[in-house]
Amino acid sequence: MLSFEQILHVIEAAIGELRFEGRPRSLFEPIEYTLAMGGKRIRPALTLMACDLYGGKTGDALKPALGMEVFHNFTLLHDDLMDEADKRRNRPTVHKKWNQNTAILSGDAMLIAAYQLIGETSEPYLKKVLPLFTETALAICGGQQFDMEFESRTDVTEDEYLEMIRLKTAVLFACCLKAGAWIGGASETDADHLYRLGIHVGLAFQLQDDLLDVYGNPQTFGKNLGGDILCDKKTFLLIHALKRANAAQQAMIRQYQSDGKNRFTPEEKIAVITAIYDELEIKSLTLKKIQQYHELAMDDLAQLQAPADGLAVLREVCCRLTVREF
């Protein structure tokens, strides 16, 4: 069984060999720029790990794994545009470095490139992997739409939020694991268990991401802190802050949401909302929810019929994804 670091090395080398040499260059340069930003490469790593777990040839899973990563970066490119984000991984976002139209069109080209790579999945796996990927891609678009619609609502529930992040984040984790398992020769039962594991890890991962947006270290997080607060995103933190807040705290939150852009600086809005989170112990509440999903993922992992050394590697990676540094 390959270690996580060995798998990451394989993926990084393969991404470095990807070429987007079409014309005009102005269409493809933003794609190369986006992929060169780096990132955790979690999704392609999960694809190769699941394949390797069952003794499959990781080379057979490499092209679909790369397709998953290109698709993920496409979603980030468009997500940054919709959120008007200035930074991604400590570098200017594509729409800031170029312009909005370039970000839209180069993002579209990235989506097509992702499908090209997925389409190179060898038979007989392609007939299973491609429909799963297509279903996943549509689900992610649905998650993003929910995320945008929630910004103008004041009554978003925890269940609605969790369904949104399941669609927006967790289904791609699950897709990567299941596709890799199929290519590696796993049973359908184990492939299904890995899909559920991916859902639970993905939910914990996104909850961590929301928490890091408020409490993270900007140098390691790679984005400006407080972006979700400035955009009034209905995160787990905000939903529960509104639920726990007294009348004065609720009024303060509403005031900064309705008039925040006109009356207060971004720094002031972030500081005030974060202080309310602190008063209501929202951080500890979120960490508790993350732990619940981590435990569910460990239950999924315990159901797998796979070599112990491989399961140990997968368990370690799941822990890395659900418990990240602040």
Using brief descriptors, characterize the structure shown.
mainly alpha; 2 strands; 77% helix; 16 helices; single chain; two-stranded antiparallel sheet; 326 residues; globular
Could you please describe the fold and organization of this structure?
With 326 residues, this protein is mainly α. The chain is built from 16 helices and two strands. Strands 1-2 form a two-stranded antiparallel ribbon. β1 and β2 form a beta hairpin. The radius of gyration is 20 Å and the shape is globular. The model has no long low-confidence stretch (mean pLDDT 93).
Number of helices: 16
Coarse shape: globular
**Strand arrangement across the biggest beta sheet:** 1-2
Bin the helical content. Answer: over 70%
Structural class call reads mainly alpha
Low-confidence stretches: none
Mean pLDDT: 93
Over the alpha carbons, how many angstroms does the gyration radius reach? 20 Å
SSE string: HHHHEEHHHHHHHHHHHH
Q: What's the quaternary structure here?
A: single chain
Largest sheet: 2 strands, antiparallel
The percent range for strand residues is under 5%
Tally of extended strands?
A: 2
What's the N-to-C terminus distance?
Answer: 30 Å
Short description:
With 326 residues, this protein is mostly helical.
Question: Secondary structure elements and their pairing?
Answer:
Blueprint: H1 4-17, H2 25-36, H3 42-53, H4 58-83, E1 87-88, E2 91-92, H5 94-97, H6 100-118, H7 126-150, H8 158-184, H9 188-215, H10 218-221, H11 227-230, H12 236-244, H13 247-263, H14 266-279, H15 282-302, H16 308-322
Antiparallel strand pairs: 1-2
